[in-house]
Amino acid sequence: MKIGIPKEIKNNESRVGMTPAGVFELTKKNHTVYVQSSAGEGSGFFDKNYLEVGAIILPTIEEVYSESEMIVKVKEPIAEEYSLIKKNQIVFTYFHFASSEALTKAMIKSKSICIAYETVEDEEGTLPLLTPMSEVAGRMAIQQGAKYLEKPVKGRGILLGGVPGVTPGKVLILGAGVVGVQAAKMAAGLGAHVTIMDINMKRLRYVNDVLPNHVITAFSSEYSIRQLIKTHDLIVGGVLVKGGKAPKLITKDMLKEMRPGTVVVDVAVDQGGCFETTKPTTHQDPTYIIDDVVHYCVANMPGAVPYTSTIALTNVTLPYILKLANLGWEKACKLDESLNKGLNIVKGEVVYNEINEAFNLN
To answer: What is the DSSP secondary-structure string of 142-198?
Structure first.
């Protein structure tokens, strides 16, 4: 199969769809891999590294799309790429269709085969291709939140871990999934007081078993959220609905209950966000303030650490990419139920129910 790795063109996105190690595994199986010139530079992988493992370097994004039967990316195609996607072309990437009607309609029109990393689901019901980026984003949520609690960037002026004689900062985490657990680990490691909330008691029991005693679990309800936001310095939204829009757990009126300089980090921004006041931001302009509350809502948080993120992503996507390349998408999805669940749009037809529900396409 002919596989294309274009350069990501989303604002401040430095990740690349595949490492040279991944390309080597494909060329070893006699597949042809086209890599756009300088596509990997932001992640620390250079054209010469790809050439050494048998890739063909193409100068433009147009050529990569034109020559390839399958496109392997990191982020969803943006408007400039819509017209480059061909009928029957496989596009394997993070799509998050439920948060963008324009993207959904463009991919329907393209009549391509859209396989979304974030809806590939294994036998245990986990999302193996979303997990590594959720791990990165969960840890970064605390790293970034701690930074924006500083006074020069309009935060409360809180050091999360405190110092002897001074109470540590308080972190509230909504959701005890991969993002929430990783955020809790980081916050606890800094010495912060951490409360993690969920409606799934099994997850809360797991958190209670694996995290330190100063990480407190709480059952999530609107009432309990309203009480806790009054006293917490950093609030992380990490709630996931598979393939669908995130629920709005913090409404605009709740911001007035928070102390000035409170920081909210919405890791669910790719799926519409779990705060009513969420709007996507970029690494170039990451924050905005509403009612004296600092919002950090960067839609591609792992893009800030591209070396770590690209390797972590290729580690999990490569087995699926090899199946698609070796067998073709139809046979691969028929034989692998996990991959079959990744199918979102096929030749103009939406085949993932949550997307239909998001935009009333039925």
So the answer is: HHHHHHHTSGGGTS----TT-BTTBPPPEEEEE--SHHHHHHHHHHHHHT-EEEEEE
